[in-house]
Amino acid sequence: MRIGFDAKRAYHNNTGLGNYSRDLIQGMANSYKEDDYFLFTPSLSENPRIAFTNYFPNVNAIIPQALLDRQFKSYWRSVNMEKDLVKNGIELYHGLSQEIPKRKGGKVKYVVTIHDLIFLRYPETYKAIDRKIYDKKFRYAAENADLVIAISEQTKADLVEFYKADPAKIRVIYQSCHEQFKEEVKAEIKTQITAKHNLPAEYILYVGTIEKRKNLASLIKACAKIDVPIVAIGNQTSYFNEVLEAVTSNKMENRVHFLENIPFSDLPAIYQSAKIFCYPSVFEGFGIPIIEALYSKIPVITSKGGVFPETGGPNSTYVDPLNVEELANAINDTLKRDNSEQISKGFEFVQKFSTENHIKGVRAVYKELF
After folding, report:
1. Is the dihedral of CA 324, 336, 341, 358 positive or negative?
2. Do residues 214 and 285 make contact, with C-beta atoms less than 8 angstroms apart?
3. Average pLDDT score, the chain
4. DSSP string of 59-99?
5. How distant, in Å, are the alpha carbons of 44, 70, 83, 133 from that of 74?
6. Is 2-176+354-368 a CATH 3.90.380.10 domain?
7. Against a cut of 0.85, is the pTM above it?
8. CATH architecture of the region 179-352
9. Angstrom distance (rounded) from CA 247 to CA 126
10. DSSP characters over 215-257
């Protein structure tokens, strides 16, 4: 089979959508060597995390060739790409980041992965122009793809609710996290990494963009009377000012450590050195940091309802993320008790999100179309 992928994020994004794209492409190329894979990207990059493609002879990068397409790369990717799919004999094209190019009558089969519709649930957190663009692209993909992959039952429900999508053509395929989170880090390496980033001996870990929806300020308020510092890893948005206000008003200037743009390879050691992983987000399409924490064998505290029990399983601790007292009590209880059984059962649960299961699930969707 000749399979095309939307590889823009694989080449140019180092976080969520980029990780999803790279992990899926690498998994497919490694598991199904009999097929040929074509990565359609507006431009190439020196990103070292896409370098794995050099080791697979059946993986080829495709960039726009026509003058118009080179000058208007977004137009090529959204409207004019199908001619290049046909030219390269693509039988199936997978839009990995919630969109597909306009269908123009070719015989290409289309699959799209929809990660979330957060811009519709929380429109105030997005610019108006971005919401308009996302809505147009995501709606078209949901309506015109032959099959839709939703990364969770929550996202499937949102597709049906907001776009009246046909549930019969939606397949829920859980993603995994990067393989590096599944390996135990040696004690000496953990010591080196924590010293490198000047981290405390014990800490509560938060990982995620520092934006209002993810609710870091509530975690800071909850920890005001708990004598364990917080390590917060994530890019900062305008909401960071509210977070800093929470730090100052609770006199926690020396107890909250912010890390940004750290090497991806350092993350497993930071996870595995934490006492607790706390993720008080109000809403997610999936919540990949929860998976990373469960693989890292640390107790997880996250939010009630939505996708969180789907991702965190029956042995994580769930709270109302906006109830600071409830969050504080959960943290205190977790710090005081023996969490070995919770960790063991959480690690057992998270195996359902293995890379093998993810790749097999997506492959089954491809086979369904042929």
Report:
1. positive
2. no
3. 95
4. EEEE---SHHHHH-HHHIIIII-HHHHHHTT-SEEEETTS-
5. 14, 9, 15, 12
6. no
7. yes
8. 3-Layer(aba) Sandwich (3.40)
9. 25
10. -HHHHHHHTTTSSS-EEEES-B-TTHHHHHHHHHHTT-TTTEE
Alpha helices in 88-228 (DSSP H): 118-121, 128-144, 153-163, 187-196, 216-222
CA distance 310 to 149: 16
**Ranges of each domain in the chain:** 2-176+354-368, 179-352
Residue 287 has pLDDT above 90, yes or no: yes
To 5 degrees, how large is the angle CA 149–CA 36–CA 72? Answer: 70
* CA–CA gap between residue 227 and residue 286 (Å, rounded): 31
Structure tokens at 169: 């053509």
Helix (H, G, I), strand (E, B) or coil at 354: coil
Beta carbons of 25 and 49 less than 8 angstroms apart: no
User: What average pLDDT does the segment 5-33 reach?
Assistant: 93
What are the tens digits of pLDDT across the range 227-267? 999 999 999 999 999 999 999 999 999 999 999 889 999 99
Angle at which helix 340-350 crosses helix 288-295, to 10 degrees, equals: 120
Tell me which residue of 173, 163, 180 sits closest to 115, measured CA to CA: 173
Token code pair at residue 31: 């598991």
User: Cα separation of 169 and 271, whole Å?
Assistant: 37
Length of the chain: 370
pLDDT in tens, 201-233: 999 999 999 999 999 999 999 999 999 999 999
**What is the DSSP-derived secondary structure letter of residue 168?**
G
Segment holding 148, helix H or strand E? strand 147-150
